[in-house]
Amino acid sequence: DFGDFSKALEYYEKSLKIRELALPPTHPDLASSYSCIGLVYRNMGEYSKALSYFEKSNSIREKALPEKHPNRAVTNSDIGDVHRLMGNYEKALGFLLTALSIQENVECNPLECATTYMNVGETYREMKDYTTALTYDQKGLIIREEKLPKYHPDLAATYHSMSKFYFSTQEYSMATKYGQQAVEIGQQNLCSTHPHLVEYRETFEKCLSKRKIFY
């Protein structure tokens, strides 16, 4: 819930202050702090603040790391995801595909690559390019199902994305199946008022109501 986000922010901001005093301004650890704070703001729905911190992180990583470093990809993916959430789909794709151009060509964490695939898929879904969206969604889904435990929160997010995809293409039976999986995993990990679980439930209920009409 938002109490947890506030605690996380407090922790990361204290850590950032220590690092800002102890480290030179382009040290990669500072970029990590900015990225962590950006992620919290993104999860809180404060996208402008999230973008500001991700851009600070990116600015440091561009100076401190080689062009094809996996962390450069992660920052590009984070920036792209926030642009997607803000409705800037073309801009989002630019950053996300830059991230993938690194992740698909160097050895990196496959789960980070899966996150980028899912973000690209979501972006294409929002742009109503459903064929391309499904290609990327399925790549992300395969990696996460292979690498994550059955009830991992990232799997809930993946199933929720798949549910939204199939809802968009009016395949309500598949949408309901994935929506139910998202809710079941979300209930294992999140409190009942957590914004992610609330969203999973809303999507699942929409799928159920459509399914009743069409089946």
TrEMBL record:
- Return the SUPFAM superfamilies for the record: TPR-like (SSF48452)
| Signal peptide stretch | none
Q: Which Pfam families match?
A: TPR_12
Superkingdom of the source species: Eukaryota
Q: Which UniProt keywords apply?
A: Repeat, TPR repeat
In Swiss-Prot or TrEMBL terms, this protein is called: Kinesin light chain
Organism this protein belongs to: Rotaria magnacalcarata
User: Which residue intervals correspond to the TPR repeats?
Assistant: 31-64, 114-147, 156-189
